[in-house]
C-alpha cells in the first residue's frame, strides 16, 4: 500500500478540551479495568437488594412479630412462633392449602396438555398457522383483570353467552351461576386460568421442539416408528428440561399470585376458592394483620422451594 | 408402507389444522364477545333472548367511561408507571444483562440463579414490607413508588430475557471493536447494543406490557385517584350487585388495545427472547 | 512495523494453566505462524498479544514498548478473526473505516484510506453493502481490509481461512502472502493447516498443550523436527516412525528393525551415543525410492493409492506399516513383495523415551 502510516495518524485530531473532561472518557477507562463486570451489575443488584431481598427478609422477620395496622395498641413486639402456631389450628389455612393443591395441579395439568398439543400442531409449520399462532399466544399477554371480566361476562348467571349456548344445545336446563355455586366455582376459575396461561407452555414447548434435530425423526421414520412412539421416545425425552423449567415457572406463578381468583371470586363462595396466596393477601389487605400474612407467605415460600427441589430431583433421576 | 405413511401424515395435518383453529377460536372468542358487548345498547346486553350479533351499534359505553369514571386519569397514571418501570429496567437491566452475557467471572452462575430465584418469593411477602417501607419514605401511593415496586419482579425477567439476545451477538465482535479503538464501554454501546436492538425493544415491550397489566401491587400500593392504575380502577367499578357490563367491556377493550397492537408488532422477537431466557435458565 | 517479543508468558483459567512460559521472538516484517492441534492455546496466546485477555505472567513487547498494561485499542495492532467479526449493522465502508473513525481520522483521509484498501483487495464495488449480503470470500476480504487500512504495527490472524472452501482457501493464501510481501508488516498467524504454515511463515512455532515445541523456519521444522510430535504433526502423509536398535557395524551406524537393516550415513553426530540402544527412525514418505540399496526396506504391498502426480504405497514391513510416496508411474499390486531404498540423509532419529530428536 502506498500510503504511509504517518499521513493517517498525523491527521488524527488532537483531544479537545471537551474530550478531556468528557465523563464518557472516564467511564471508558473504567470499562477496561478488571472489575468492570461488577460495576455493570451494581445498579441492578442494589435495586434488587432494595426491592426484593430487603422486603423479603423484612417480611420474614415480620412473621415473628405482632404487626396490625388497624390495631396499633397491640404494638409490634416479637411473638416468636405465635403466628405459626395459630396456623396449625386455623381451619381456613388448611382449606386454603388443599385448594391451592387442587388449583395448581388442575391448572398445570390442563395448561401443559393443551399447551403441548398446540405446540406440536404449530411445530408442523403448516401454511397459515403462523397467524393462528399469534391468536393462540395472545391470552397470555392480556391483563388478569380483563381476562377475569371477559369470562365473568360470558359465564354470567343472567346474560352469560356460555349459559345460553349450553341451554340451546341442551346440556343445561337453565342458566347457571358458575362462580356462585361452591361445586362449580373452582372448576370455572381453573378454566379461566387455563385459558389465560396455556400459551405460556405453548411458547416454551414450541421453542424446545424447534431445538430437536429433524434427523432424529427421519431416523425414526426409517426404523418404522409411528407418530405415537416418536412422541414418546424422541419428543418428550428431548423436551425434558424445557418441560421441567416451564412447569416450575408456572407453578411458582400459580402459587404466588392470587390476582385472578381475587378478581373472579375473592375466595368465595364460602371458602371454596380460597387459596394460600389469596388468604395471605386478604390477611394483609383487609385485616391489616401483617404479621400473620408474613407467616403465611413464608410457609408458601417454603412449600414452593420444597416442590421445586423435589421436582428438579425427580426429573433429573428420570433423565438418567 | 409409503402410502400408509403419507395417509397418516395427511390425517395429522388435518388434525393439526382442526386443533389450531379450534384453539385460536377459543382464544379470541372472549375478546370478540367483549368487544361486541361494548358496542351493544344496554338493553341489548341484559335481555331475555341473547343477541349474538348486535343490530344496533353504540359507542355510549366508551363515551361514558371516558367522561364519567375518571378513566383518562387512570390511563395516564398507568402510562407513567409503565414508562418509569421500563426506564428503570432499561437503565439498570441492560448493563446487567450485558455483564452476564459477556463476562465469565467468579460467582456469575450463582448470581444469575439468584436473579431467577427472586421470582420465587411470594408477592405478598414483598408487598407488605414494601407497603411499610414506601409509607416511611413517602413513596406510597405514587407512580414512582409503584414503578420501583414493579422492578422487583420485572427487572430479573428483563435481565434474563435480554441476556438471551446479547448471547446471540458473537463475542469476537467486541474484541474486533476493542482492537479497532473503542473501550469496552464503546464496544458495548456502538456494536453490541445496536445488534441487539430488536431484542432490547422486544424485552422492553414485554416488561411494559407486564407493568401495564399488573393488578396486585397496584391494589395494595396505591390508594387514591392520584396514582391508581387502570386495572385497579376498572375493578373498582364492579359494584356489589348491578354490574355495568357495557362500561366494563369498553374499559377492557380500551386497555388491551395497546397490548394487542404492541404484541402484534414485536411478537416474533419477543417470543424468541422469552424462550431464549427461559430455556437456557 | 515492529518486532514482537514474548517473554515467559503464562495464562491460567482458574486452576488450569493453558499456556506455560511461552517465549517467542519475531523480527520486524516477519511472518510468524502458530501451529498446533485444537485446544493447544493458540487463540489464547493471540488474545494476550492483542490485550484482549490479561496474561497471568510474563511480558509482551511490541517494538520498543512493553504493552502488558496497554489497552488493545492503544497497541496499534489489527486482527482478523476466524468468523471475520464484521459489524453486522454497518456497511462494508464503515466496517473498514471503523478503526480510523475511532481514532478520529478526518473523513476525507478516511475515505482515501478505505478506497485504497478496497482497491488493493478488489472489493470497491461492495463498499455500500452490509456484511450479511456478502459471500464468505468477500467477507474475508472485508475483514482483511479492516485490518490493513490502519497501517498497524502488527497483524494478528486467527485461522482466517478455515471457513473458506478448499479452492478459495488456496487463493486467499496466495493473496495473504502477496499482501505481506507488499506491506511488510509483521504478522502473527494462527492455523492448524500445516500447508498454510509452510507456505506463509518465515518462522513457525509448533505448539502443544500450551508449550512451544519448536520455533524455527519452515524448512528446519520440516527437515529437522525437534521431536516426534513436531515430526508427526508436519507433513502429509505423516512421517513413518520405525522402531529399531542402533548398532555399530564395521564402523558404520546401522539400524536393525526386525529382519531389516538400514545403513545410516549422514545421520546426526549425537547418534553414536545411542549405539546399542533402541531408537525411532523418522522417515518421510517422499524419501523412499523403488529399488534396492545399502539402506532398504522390503515388505509386502498392502494398499496402493494413486493421487495423480504421485502414487502412495503402504508397505507392510514385518508388521509395521510404512507409507511411501512414489512416482506416478509406479503401480505395484497389493500382495506383491517390494523393496524401497531410503535416502538416509533426510532421516531423523528420535529418542523413544523423550521423543526428542537425537
Ligand atoms: N475462557 C476460558 N475459560 C477456561 N478455559 C478456557 C477459556 N478459553 C480457552 N480455554 C481453554 O484453553 C485452552 C486453549 O484454548 P484456545 O482457544 O487458545 O485453543 P486453540 O489452540 O485456539 O484451539 P482451536 O484450534 O480449536 O481454536 C483450551 O483447552 C480451552 O479449553
Ligand atoms: Mg482458536
Q: What would you report as the Rg of chain A, rounded to the nearest angstrom?
A: 28 Å
Query: What's the shape of chain C?
Result: elongated
What is the CATH topology classification name of the largest domain in chain A? MetI-like fold
In the CATH hierarchy, the architecture of the largest domain in chain C is: 3-Layer(aba) Sandwich
Sheet with the most strands, sense and barrel status of chain A: none
Order of strands, main sheet of chain C, comes to 6-7-8-3-9-10
Distance between the termini of chain C: 38 Å
Whole-number tally of structural domains of chain A: 2
Subcellular location (chain A): Cell membrane
Protein name (chain A): Sugar ABC transporter permease
Organism (chain A): Devosia algicola
Keywords (chain A): Cell membrane, Membrane, Transmembrane, Transmembrane helix, Transport
Task: Name the features.
heterotrimer, A: 320 residues, mainly alpha, MetI-like fold, 16 helices, 0% strand, B: mainly alpha, 2 domains, globular, binds adenosine-5'-triphosphate, binds magnesium ion
Amino acid at each position: 500500500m502506498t500510503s504511509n502510516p504517518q499521513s493517517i495518524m498525523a491527521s488524527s485530531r488532537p483531544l479537545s478540551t471537551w474530550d478531556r473532561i468528557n465523563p464518557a472518557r472516564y467511564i471508558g477507562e473504567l470499562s477496561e479495568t478488571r472489575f468492570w463486570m461488577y460495576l455493570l451489575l451494581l445498579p441492578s443488584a442494589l435495586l434488587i437488594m432494595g426491592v426484593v431481598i430487603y422486603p423479603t427478609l423484612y417480611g420474614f422477620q415480620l412473621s415473628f412479630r405482632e404487626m396490625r395496622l388497624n390495631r396499633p395498641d397491640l404494638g409490634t413486639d416479637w411473638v416468636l412462633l405465635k403466628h405459626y402456631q395459630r396456623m396449625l389450628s386455623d381451619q381456613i389455612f388448611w382449606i386454603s392449602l388443599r385448594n391451592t393443591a387442587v388449583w395448581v395441579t388442575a391448572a398445570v395439568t390442563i395448561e401443559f396438555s393443551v399447551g403441548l398439543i398446540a405446540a406440536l400442531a404449530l411445530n408442523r409449520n403448516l401454511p397459515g398457522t403462523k397467524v393462528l399462532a399469534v391468536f393462540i399466544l395472545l391470552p397470555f399477554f392480556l391483563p388478569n383483570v380483563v381476562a377475569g371480566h371477559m369470562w365473568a361476562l360470558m359465564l354470567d348467571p343472567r346474560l352469560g353467552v356460555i349459559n345460553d349456548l349450553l341451554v340451546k344445545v341442551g346440556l343445561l336446563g337453565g342458566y347457571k351461576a358458575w362462580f356462585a355455586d361452591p361445586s362449580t366455582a373452582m372448576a370455572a376459575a381453573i378454566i379461566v386460568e387455563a385459558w389465560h396461561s396455556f400459551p405460556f407452555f405453548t411458547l416454551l414447548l414450541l421453542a424446545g421442539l424447534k431445538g430437536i434435530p429433524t434427523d432424529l425423526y427421519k431416523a425414526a421414520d426409517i426404523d418404522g416408528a409411528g407418530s405415537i412412539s416418536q412422541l414418546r421416545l424422541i419428543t418428550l425425552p428431548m423436551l425434558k428440561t424445557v418441560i421441567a423449567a416451564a412447569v416450575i415457572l408456572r407453578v411458582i406463578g400459580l402459587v404466588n399470585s392470587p390476582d385472578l381468583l381475587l378478581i373472579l371470586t375473592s375466595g368465595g363462595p364460602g371458602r371454596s376458592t380460597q387459596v394460600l396466596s389469596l388468604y395471605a393477601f386478604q390477611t394483609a389487605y383487609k385485616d391489616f394483620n401483617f404479621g400473620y400474612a408474613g407467616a403465611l407467605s413464608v410457609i408458601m415460600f417454603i412449600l414452593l422451594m420444597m416442590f421445586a427441589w423435589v421436582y428438579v430431583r425427580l426429573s433429573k433421576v428420570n433423565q438418567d | 408402507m409409503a402410502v400408509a405413511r403419507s395417509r397418516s401424515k395427511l390425517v395429522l395435518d388435518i388434525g393439526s389444522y382442526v386443533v389450531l383453529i379450534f384453539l385460536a377460536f377459543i382464544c379470541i372468542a372472549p375478546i370478540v364477545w367483549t368487544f361486541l358487548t361494548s358496542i351493544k345498547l344496554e338493553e341489548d346486553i341484559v335481555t331475555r333472548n341473547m343477541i349474538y350479533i348486535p343490530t344496533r351499534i353504540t359507542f355510549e359505553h366508551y363515551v361514558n367511561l371516558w367522561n364519567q369514571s375518571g378513566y383518562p386519569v387512570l390511563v395516564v397514571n398507568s402510562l407513567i408507571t409503565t414508562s418509569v418501570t421500563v426506564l428503570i429496567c432499561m437503565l439498570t437491566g441492560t448493563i446487567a444483562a450485558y455483564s452476564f452475557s459477556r463476562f465469565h467471572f467468579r460467582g456469575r452462575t450463582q448470581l444469575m440463579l439468584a436473579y431467577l430465584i427472586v421470582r420465587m418469593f411470594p408477592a405478598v411477602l414483598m408487598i407488605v414490607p414494601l407497603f411499610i417501607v414506601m409509607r416511611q419514605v413517602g413513596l406510597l401511593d405514587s407512580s414512582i413508588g409503584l414503578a420501583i415496586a414493579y422492578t422487583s419482579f420485572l427487572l430479573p425477567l428483563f435481565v434474563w430475557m435480554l441476556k438471551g439476545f446479547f448471547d446471540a451477538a458473537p463475542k469476537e465482535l467486541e474484541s474486533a471493536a476493542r482492537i479497532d479503538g473503542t473501550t469496552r464501554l464503546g464496544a458495548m454501546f456502538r456494536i453490541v447494543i445496536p445488534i441487539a436492538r430488536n431484542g432490547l425493544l422486544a424485552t422492553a415491550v414485554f416488561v411494559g406490557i407486564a407493568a401495564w397489566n399488573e393488578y396486585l401491587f397496584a391494589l395494595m400500593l396505591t390508594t387514591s385517584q392520584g396514582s391508581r392504575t387502570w386495572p385497579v380502577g376498572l375493578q373498582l367499578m364492579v359494584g356489589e350487585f348491578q354490574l355495568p357490563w357495557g362500561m366494563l367491556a369498553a374499559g377492557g377493550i380500551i386497555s388491551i388495545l395497546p397490548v394487542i397492537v404492541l404484541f402484534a408488532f414485536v411478537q416474533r422477537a419477543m417470543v424468541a427472547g422469552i424462550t431464549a431466557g427461559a430455556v437456557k435458565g | 512495523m515492529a518486532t514482537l517479543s514474548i517473554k515467559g508468558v503464562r495464562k491460567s483459567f482458574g486452576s488450569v494453566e493453558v499456556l506455560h512460559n511461552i517465549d517467542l521472538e519475531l523480527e520486524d516484517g516477519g511472518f510468524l505462524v502458530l501451529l498446533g492441534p485444537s485446544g493447544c492455546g493458540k487463540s489464547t496466546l493471540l488474545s494476550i498479544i492483542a490485550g484482549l485477555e490479561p496474561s497471568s505472567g510474563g511480558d509482551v513487547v511490541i517494538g520498543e514498548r512493553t504493552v502488558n498494561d496497554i489497552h488493545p485499542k492503544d497497541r496499534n495492532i489489527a486482527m482478523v478473526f476466524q468468523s471475520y467479526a464484521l459489524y453486522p449493522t454497518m456497511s462494508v465502508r464503515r466496517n473498514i473505516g471503523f478503526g480510523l473513525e475511532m481514532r478520529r481520522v478526518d473523513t476525507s483521509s478516511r475515505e482515501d484510506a478505505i478506497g485504497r484498501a478496497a482497491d488493493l483487495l478488489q472489493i470497491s464495488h461492495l463498499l455500500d453493502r452490509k456484511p450479511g449480503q456478502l459471500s464468505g470470500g468477500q467477507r474475508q476480504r472485508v475483514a482483511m481490509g479492516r485490518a490493513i487500512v490502519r497501517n498497524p504495527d502488527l497483524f494478528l490472524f486467527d485461522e482466517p481461512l478455515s471457513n473458506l472452501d478448499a479452492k478459495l482457501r488456496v487463493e486467499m493464501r496466495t493473496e495473504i502472502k502477496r499482501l505481506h510481501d507488499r506491506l511488510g508488516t509483521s504478522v502473527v498467524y494462527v492455523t492448524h493447516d500445516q500447508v498454510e504454515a509452510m507456505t506463509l511463515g518465515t518462522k513457525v512455532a509448533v505448539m502443544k498443550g500450551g508449550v512451544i515445541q519448536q520455533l524455527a523456519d519452515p524448512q528446519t521444522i520440516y527437515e529437522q523436527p525437534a521431536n516426534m510430535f513436531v515430526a508427526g504433526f508436519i507433513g502429509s502423509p505423516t512421517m513413518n516412525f520405525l522402531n529399531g536398535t542402533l548398532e555399530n557395524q564395521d564402523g558404520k551406524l546401522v539400524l536393525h528393525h526386525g529382519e531389516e537393516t538400514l545403513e545410516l550415513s549422514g545421520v546426526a553426530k549425537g547418534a553414536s551415543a545411542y549405539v546399542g540402544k533402541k531408537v525411532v527412525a523418522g522417515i518421510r514418505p517422499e524419501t523412499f525410492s523403488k529399488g534396492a540399496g545399502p539402506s532398504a526396506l522390503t515388505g509386502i504391498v498392502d494398499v496402493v493409492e494413486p493421487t495423480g502426480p504421485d502414487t502412495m504405497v503402504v508397505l507392510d514391513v514385518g508388521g509395521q506399516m510404512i507409507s511411501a510416496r512414489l512416482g506416478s508411474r509406479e503401480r505395484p499390486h497389493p500382495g506383491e513383495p517390494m523393496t524401497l531404498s531410503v535416502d538416509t540423509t533426510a532421516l531423523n532419529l528420535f529418542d523413544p523415551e523423550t521423543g526428542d530428536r537425537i
